[in-house]
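Could you please consider the sequence and fold appended to this message?
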Amino acid sequence: MSGIKVGDTVTFILTQSNNVYLVMHIQPDK
């Protein structure tokens, strides 16, 4: 895991945030 760039980390974090956001808005609260 030695070639990770800061941009890749930011993209990963944003992607994870978007996934959580979509899941919480698509699935109804149980």
